[in-house]
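Shipment paperwork, digital attachment
Item: protein structure file
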Amino acid sequence: MKSESIKDVEELESLLSEPNERTVAAMAKLDGGIVVLGVGGKMGPTLARMAKRASDLAGKSRRVIGVSRFSSPTLQRQLEQHGVETHSCDLLDRSAYAGLPDAANVMFMAGMKFGSTDQEARTWAMNAYVPGIVSDRYRDSRIAVFSTGNVYGLSPVALGGSVETDAIAPVGEYAMSCVGRERIFEHFSRVNGTPMTMLRLNYATELRYGVLLDIAERVRTGTQVSLQIGNFNCIWQADASRMSLQSLLHASSPARYLNIAGPELLSVRRVAQDFARRFGKQVRFEGEESGDGILSSAQKAFDLFGYPTVGVEQMMTWIADWIEREGEKLGKPTHFEIRDGKF
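Attachment content:
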C-alpha cells in the first residue's frame, strides 16, 4: 500500500532514484562505468542517482559520471553528495570531447525541445549534430539514446498507440530534428558496430512537472483545459529511468528501438474531471475534443523490463496532494495541447 502523500522534495527525489530488483540485477550484469550526457535535465539527476544506487546494491564498484554545462553549481554538489561524479562540458563544443571521461556505457539525454521555435538551427545542432560527435567519441561503448514518441506524429486512439515498427510522421521541426538524432545514431551504430538502444519516451511524470501536473494546475486555478490533444500516455519517472538503465543490456547494432510509456491511453477530459472532483472544483474546457494524441504502445519494453510500478491513480493522488500543499514545481510546462509541433 503506497502512501497518499510524498512529504517533500528530498523524499520525492529518493523515490525517483529508487531502483527495483530488475534494475539492480541489470547493474550486476553490466560491466564498466556509466556516463550520463545531459544529466542536468529534468530526468537526468535522479536517473544518475538510480544508476549509482543500483550499482552499489549490486555490489559493483562503478563510476557514474554526470555531464552537463552545470549553469548552477547546486546540482553538481547534490549529485556528488550521492556518489555521482560530475564533469562540466558544452556538448556543442567539439573540442571539449577529448576531455570527457571514458565509459563502457553512455546514457544520452541531451537535446532541445522547449524554446525550439525561433531557434530551429540550434535545435537541429543539439538534436542531430551532437549525436554524430557523441557516436564518434563513444564508438566503443554501449549507448542508450533518449528520443521521443513525437517522431510518430499524432496517433488515433482506436489504434491503441504507435508501435516501434510503425512508419514515422513527425510534425514540426522539433520532431523532425529528433528523427535526425535517431538516424545519425543509427548510422554510426551500423558503421562502427556500436550497440545502442533508441528509447522513444512519452511523458515521464513526477510531482514537479509533467502533463498530469499541467492539467491539475489548470483545474485548480480555473484555467481552461485544452482538448486540442485529447489523449496521452504518461509514465512515472522512476519507472522510465529503471527501464532505460536496463535497456543497456539489450543494446544492439543496428540500434534496437523501444517505446517507453505508460500502459494506459488517458483522456484529457477524464483526467481533468478526476482532478476537479479531488479539488472540489468545476473544470472548464477549451476547444473541440480530438480523438488522437502522442500515443505509444510500450508492450515491447514491458515484456523486457516488467510493467510500471506506479499507476496513474497513484500519480494523481500524489500530485493533487502536492498541489494543495503548494509543493515545489519546476515551472516547465509540457505544452501537451500543441498540435503543430511548435514548442
